[in-house]
Design brief:
D-Maltodextrin-Binding Protein, domain 2, two-stranded antiparallel sheet
Length: 318
């Protein structure tokens, strides 16, 4: 179907109803208007009318009528995805309001970069001891993506860096923590037990690195540049902690850079070896970030208190 113009946002807000969005989800789950109508508890003619109203509100067809039933097209799958998000947000809204009414509990969504996960989990452990009915969602991602989630209102707080944003002044940085990095490898790596390794020695091996322009990638690039060494050619690029760990375990000749505490935790479990390097690598500090001018929820304020109480010697980021 050729689209000439989608409905404006004010038009969608005024015409769409929550029960219609629930119908979209049911249609996706059931594949049949008749079955979807039963799920939403309306008649089949009512469901047909509601679907026509939904497509009319958007100004385009969302489903293809087939002999097997209704099949969402690309626009329909997009609408269904956001219908699910809205439904989930309403469930979270009710959960948080219930917690407020009961004077405890509630819901908290916090974003975190890889190296700050140990810092966050310790703070959350103390917080949940005080608020056992608190529901918490942890979103681990890059700083850039976490800042985007803050902008969208999908996380309450994020432990990350604002330097990756073109508008760092849009955020409040509630506290700053230092970050030390470690070079890690498979315990069977040829240099695993060699003291005082130089970057030149490590340059001979293949690296797992963060994607371009990410803070930890920039640290490594600067270190190689300062040592007048060529940055490792043909690296494996990933921002995933799990992927990095799996790659190192699979190939004993790979090396990577990790936040100190994450690396030490994996080393204690026998999963990795922290290589003894002569050079100490540090990245820029990370902070507890929120959207400037946006008041924090009660659970977010409690978490912030716990994060501020974290002993300075226990901090490292990623």
């Amino acid at each position: 179907m050729v689209i000439t113009m989608l409905a404006s946002l004010p038009a969608l807000v005024s015409r769409l109803r929550l029960k219609q969005l629930r119908l979209l989800i049911a249609l996706d789950e059931q594949g049949s208007l008749h079955k979807a109508a039963d799920v939403v508890a309306i008649s089949q003619p009512g469901a047909t009318k509601a679907l026509n109203e939904i497509e009319s509100a958007f100004g385009t067809r969302l489903f293809t009528r087939t002999s097997q039933g209704l099949e969402a097209n690309d626009l329909g799958r997009c609408a269904i995805r956001y219908a699910r998000l809205i439904h989930s947000d309403l469930a979270h809204l009710r959960e948080e309001m219930l917690g407020i009414l009961q004077g405890q509990g509630g819901r908290l969504v916090v974003g975190v970069i890889m190296g700050a996960v140990p810092h966050l989990t310790r703070a959350l452990s103390r917080l949940r001891a005080r608020q056992p009915e608190l529901s918490v969602e942890i979103v681990e991602d890059t700083s850039a993506r976490l800042l985007s989630l803050i902008d969208q209102g999908r996380v309450d707080l994020a432990i990350c860096r604002t330097s990756v944003s073109r508008r760092p002044d849009d955020y409040d940085c509630l506290s700053l923590h230092d970050e030390q990095l470690k070079v890690v490898a498979n315990p069977a790596h040829p240099l695993a037990n060699t003291p005082g390794l130089s970057l030149e020695q490590l340059a001979a091996y293949s690296w797992v690195v963060f994607p371009a322009n990410m803070p930890m990638r920039l640290v490594l690039e600067r270190a190689f540049s300062d040592a007048e060494l060529e940055f490792p050619r043909y690296p494996l690029e990933t921002a995933s902690t799990f992927a990095t760990l799996m790659l190192l375990q699979e190939d004993p000749n790979l090396v990577a850079l990790m936040p100190r505490e994450t690396a030490q935790s994996a080393a204690r479990a026998g999963q990795l070896a922290c290589l003894d390097t002569a050079q100490v690598l540090r990245s820029e500090p990370y902070g507890v970030i929120s959207r400037r001018g946006s008041p924090l929820s009660a659970p977010a304020r409690l978490l912030l208190e716990e994060l501020r109480d974290e002993p300075a010697e226990g901090l490292s980021g990623g």
